Amino acid sequence: MLQELGVVREQIDAIDAQMLALLNQRAKCAQHVGEIKARYGDAGYIYRPEREAQVLRRIQSLNEGPLPNESVTFFFREVMSACLSLETPLGIAFLGPLGTFSESAAVKHFGHAARLAPQGTIDDVFREVEAGHAHYGVAPVENSTEGAVGRTLDLLLGSSLKICGEVVLRIHQHLMTRETELGKITKVYSHAQSLAQCHEWLNRSLPGVPRISVGSNAEAARLASIEPGAAAIAGEAASERYDLPRLVESIEDEPNNTTRFLVLGRHDAGRTGADKTSLILSAANRPGAVHELLAPLAKAGVSMNRLESRPARAALWEYVFYVDIEGHRDDPAVKAALDDLAGRAAYLKVLGSYPQAVY
């Protein structure tokens, strides 16, 4: 057995050496790309979301296993993140503190080589990017069980930022504590949304135990890490950051609980062939006006996969509509629909076209 293992381990060592050489070769190519862009005055945006999405989709199409696509995608994201950081580490603003699901979304999209900049509010995330203090921002926009994040939608209405990407994060809520038994838990800390997402599990497993809402799951984990008898409901990032053991994993009531995050920047993303376009529309105050807004999409054969209404705030009882459609604004069908919409809508704002999330 030892002899057979030795042969295989020698093969692994040889492959590792080849991988290392190829990784450094790829990094040199990435540096060369930056030099070419700088020579032609195109160094303003080192990160191109459409290029990253194309690379990841191509890698998935080539993957024959045994590694699953999710693992391969994670590895190549980290490789691209490391290569980008050789020029300028990307600064990423997100809703903090560290240890939140927003941090997990930022790392999932930009990799661990990015420079993370946690912010106190979603407003601060927008401001950091608008002011140029961060290259990009990551903000939650909707949850599969709790619905839309209203503050993000409201800020998109008035912001000059573009949506240049999206991140879809599967939300696993864990009960974490320094206690070793459920019976020793005397209180549970978490964000109000996470408490709501685990309501039925808490009723069954910890009936009568006080539930205390705090500003973030990371803060809940911090408190549980220093208070005897306390537990927190939070994600894996909070558990790792505060070295807090997970007593029970995946306690969310909805097994497919997922949050969608937007990547915000100061530029558009190019076409990839698998894109989304997000819009804000308002209709004239007359019968059938909303139907008229949707007609150009049907006429051009453009699929709509999200429609959300919000108060316009400009006048009482007036609303704006947030719409996600399939395709890029430069696609002929989408362009035709947008041109038609411009003549019908009382207000039209294209928030951006961007690659669909790569899982």
From TrEMBL:
Protein's UniProt name = Bifunctional chorismate mutase/prephenate dehydratase
Q: Which residues form the Chorismate mutase domain?
A: 1-91
- Where found, per UniProt? Cytoplasm
Q: Which GO terms describe its molecular function?
A: chorismate mutase activity; prephenate dehydratase activity
For this UniProt record, the keywords arranged alphabetically read as follows: Amino-acid biosynthesis, Aromatic amino acid biosynthesis, Cytoplasm, Isomerase, Lyase, Multifunctional enzyme, Phenylalanine biosynthesis
Q: Which residues form the Prephenate dehydratase domain?
A: 91-266
Ranges of residues in domain ACT: 278-355
Q: What does this protein do?
A: Catalyzes the Claisen rearrangement of chorismate to prephenate and the decarboxylation/dehydration of prephenate to phenylpyruvate.
Enumerate the Gene Ontology biological process terms.
Answer: chorismate metabolic process; L-phenylalanine biosynthetic process
Positions bearing the site annotation: Essential for prephenate dehydratase activity? T259
Which reactions appear under catalytic activity for this entry?
A: chorismate = prephenate; prephenate + H(+) = 3-phenylpyruvate + CO2 + H2O
EC number assigned by the record: 4.2.1.51, 5.4.99.5
| Annotated SMART domains | CM_2
Q: What is its main location?
A: cytoplasm
Matches recorded under InterPro entries: ACT-like_dom_sf (IPR045865), ACT_dom (IPR002912), Chor_mutase/pphenate_deHydtase (IPR008242), Chorismate_II_sf (IPR036263), CM_dom_sf (IPR036979), CM_II_prokaryot (IPR002701), G/b/e-P-prot_chorismate_mutase (IPR010957), Preph_deHydtase (IPR001086)
Q: In which pathway does it act?
A: Amino-acid biosynthesis; L-phenylalanine biosynthesis; phenylpyruvate from prephenate: step 1/1; Metabolic intermediate biosynthesis; prephenate biosynthesis; prephenate from chorismate: step 1/1
Q: Which domain of life is it from?
A: Bacteria
Q: Which GO terms describe its cellular component?
A: cytoplasm
